[in-house]
Design a protein that fits this description.
two-stranded antiparallel sheet; binds zinc ion; single chain; alpha+beta
């Protein structure tokens, strides 16, 4: 969904959109949406900037970092973004960049791409490391068994790699 700025009455407006999971999947190689994404927000035009704020709400599935089993999590995020056109960005480059200005995005001056915002917010909201549970035992590096559901007789798994090297020497 794109918000055409020339259609905004009085330079502001609000939007609500529901994306089906398949509209956005896969968000990236590790994140899959399992419920629709509800996005709500407001757009406001200023002299040279466009301000967009709102929130997203959905559920996603990722792999456990240790055992690779699917883990589901709610994804709820609020965003507060600022856009300027490429032309305005260039003319402001001589000015000293503050932290606030670094969060500014450049756009074409005609429309705000809500799909992009939603994808970016999901990527930001899902932690880069997820465990199915705090004490997940992971997968045996020797035989590949899921140690949460089974046991194996491999003995070398937990040997510190430095000791493993010594063991090879003897
Ligand atoms: Zn796990
Ligand atoms: Zn094993």
């Amino acid at each position: 969904m794109r918000i055409e700025l020339e259609n905004l009455e009085g330079g502001k407006g609000s939007f609500t959109h529901v994306y089906e999971p398949e509209d956005l999947n896969p968000v990236d190689e590790r994140i899959r949406l399992i419920e629709p994404v509800v996005v709500k927000g407001n757009v406001r035009l200023a002299r040279t900037e466009v301000f967009v704020n709102g929130q997203i709400d959905t559920r996603a599935q990722v792999e456990c970092d240790r055992c690779l089993q699917p883990v589901e999590l709610p994804v709820i995020a609020a965003f507060d973004l600022e856009y300027i056109t490429g032309r305005d960005y260039e003319s402001s480059e001589t000015a000293e960049l503050t932290d606030a200005e670094l969060s500014v995005s450049v756009f074409d001056g005609e429309a705000i791409d809500v799909d992009e915002i939603v994808k970016e917010q999901i990527l930001l909201a899902v932690p880069t490391r997820m465990l199915c549970r705090e004490d997940c035992k992971g997968i045996c590096p020797e035989c590949g068994i899921d140690r949460n559901t089974g046991e194996c007789t491999c003995v070398t798994n937990d040997i510190d790699p430095r000791w493993a090297a010594l063991k090879k020497l003897s």
